[in-house]
Design goal:
Elements: E1 6-11, H1 15-26, E2 31-37, H2 40-50, E3 54-58, H3 66-76, E4 81-86, H4 89-101, E5 105-109, H5 114-120, H6 122-133, E6 163-168, H7 172-182, E7 189-194, H8 198-211, E8 215-218, E9 229-232, E10 238-244, E11 247-253, H9 265-275, E12 280-284, H10 293-301, E13 305-309, H11 319-325, E14 331-333, H12 335-346
Parallel strand pairs: 1-2, 1-3, 3-4, 4-5, 6-7, 6-12, 7-9, 8-9, 12-13, 13-14
Antiparallel strand pairs: 10-11
Helix pairs in contact: 3-4, 4-7, 4-8, 7-12, 9-10, 10-11
Length: about 350
């Protein structure tokens, strides 16, 4: 039986963008663009009238900006949203805010040669809209993540013995925001690979750092890895955990795509297996595809502890599923429990508090 096409509403103040996005999405027989509107006010009425499966939403629009509209939409009628943003500092900040609110993913408009640049991304745009149609979206409320003070430090807890590596993709901005804001100031060192363009990762690190109890920064090559710190892979280079004598350091090199991505979660996880072995904790969060599955399996085989985000709490249960199916995941836990489980596993002989 043939499945019904994914119904998409396009909201963009640019007539050219509406035409381009409509044309690209309509080229796929599995997608039907049911409308294209110039601003959020019209979009609101069309959502009520047409009941689309996915909304593409421009960040910058007249009458009401995209972020204000998204807040209202995700609070009152949650639905999968893919943001359209510019590759600017302002565009990055607004897009990250949208992802924190609950937008599933985003498409970055090329700074030059808009038409040819977007056409080059046609496959990626179609894939993101299809993934969004399957995403688990939740109602948004303007509440921040729990304070790290609410977490319980287990007996024999130590922040110096373990190093944590985390990989995420689609839905990862919201998930990492939740996890990192819960980590106490004496948490183990954390290295993060989140699939994101290079123009966005520095902004992402700054946003997390402004709210977290730990220090969050974009990783630099040769930087010493310290407890109470989190290091985010730059958007155009791979992040590795390396050894330098008795210390761990960040390795930030290489621009080739691995497992389809740069930065790649597999690269980070394989380096943790090699450099830290049983002293590492690997965590794979929500994301599309299978990047990280091989690396997390290598970590588990090296004696590391491994966690995967469970399906109900994932925006897209792709990467965690691939890792689980490969036998790489020791336990699956809800997003709300990830930070606590990291602390539990950081204790000497640490045990999970959750059994699967």
């Amino acid at each position: 039986m043939r499945q019904k096409p994914i119904r998409v509403l396009v909201a963009d103040d640019s007539a050219l963008m509406r035409e381009l996005i409509t044309s690209m999405l309509s080229s796929d027989p599995g997608i039907e663009v049911v409308g294209a509107v110039p601003d959020p006010i019209v979009a609101r009425e069309k959502i009520k009238q047409l009941n689309p499966d996915v909304l593409t939403l421009d960040v910058e629009m007249p009458r009401m900006d995209g972020i204000s509209f998204l807040e209202k939409l995700m609070a009152l009628r949650p639905m999968p949203v893919v943001m359209i943003s510019s590759l600017t500092q302002e565009g990055a900040d607004a897009t990250l805010r949208a992802l924190e609110i609950g937008a599933v993913d985003f498409i970055a408009k090329p700074a030059m040669n808009l038409q040819s640049g977007l056409l080059a991304k046609q496959g990626e745009i179609i894939a993101k809209v299809k993934a969004a149609s399957r995403a688990h979206v939740r109602r948004w409320t303007p509440e921040t993540a729990e304070s790290g003070a609410a977490l319980k430090r287990p007996p024999n807890y130590s922040s110096t013995e373990k190093v944590v590596v985390i990989g995420a993709s689609t839905g990862g901005v919201e998930a990492l925001h939740h996890v990192i804001l819960q980590m106490p100031s004496d948490s183990p060192a954390i290295l993060i690979t989140q699939h994101m363009p290079e123009q966005f990762t520095a902004s992402f690190a700054r946003r997390l750092n402004s709210a977290a109890q730990i220090r969050v920064s974009e990783a630099s090559d040769g930087e010493r890895v310290l407890p109470g710190h989190a290091y985010i892979a730059p958007g155009d280079r791979h992040l590795r955990l390396n050894r330098s004598g008795a210390n761990y350091v960040c390795g930030v090199k290489g621009t080739e795509r691995v497992s389809g991505h740069c930065p790649s979660v597999d690269v980070l996880f394989h380096s943790a297996a090699e450099s830290a072995g049983k002293n590492a904790i690997g965590v794979i969060l929500t994301g599309m595809g299978k990047d990280g599955a091989d690396g997390l399996l290598a970590m588990r085989q090296s004696g590391a502890r491994t966690l995967g985000q469970d399906e109900p709490s994932c925006v897209v249960y792709g990467m965690p599923k691939a890792a689980h199916d490969a036998g790489a995941v020791e336990a699956e836990v809800p997003l709300a429990r990830v930070a606590q489980e990291i602390l539990n596993l950081s204790a000497a002989g640490g045990k999970r508090a959750v059994r699967i």
